[in-house]
Amino acid sequence: MDYVNAFIVGGIFCVIAQILIDKTKLTPARILVTFVTLGVILGALNVYEPIVKLGKAGATVPLPGFGYALAKGVIKEVDKSGLLGAFTGGIKGTAGGITGAIIFGYLMALLFNPKTKE
To answer: Does the keyword Transmembrane apply (predicted)?
Structure first.
């Protein structure tokens, strides 16, 4: 059932993004920034936590999940280190995901021959 819930929650995020692309004049970049910002806001307000418990990877992998991880890291570091944690918490909270993306992106660039579009 976890896979189904992840699929449904992640799919809802995708449907919302597609509707915004089709029905508004927002660019995809602005929609992505909006999703991350909403993830931060909902994470800070503890509204995103029930979504994560229900959807697991379907809620933590998409862009709102990145914003949620930023907010969660900042809150944890502020509780631990005070005001300095507001600057270091987001970096510590998302360092693993960012590092993984860089490493795997680099590995894919090494394994596959990139070609330009014609």
So the answer is: yes
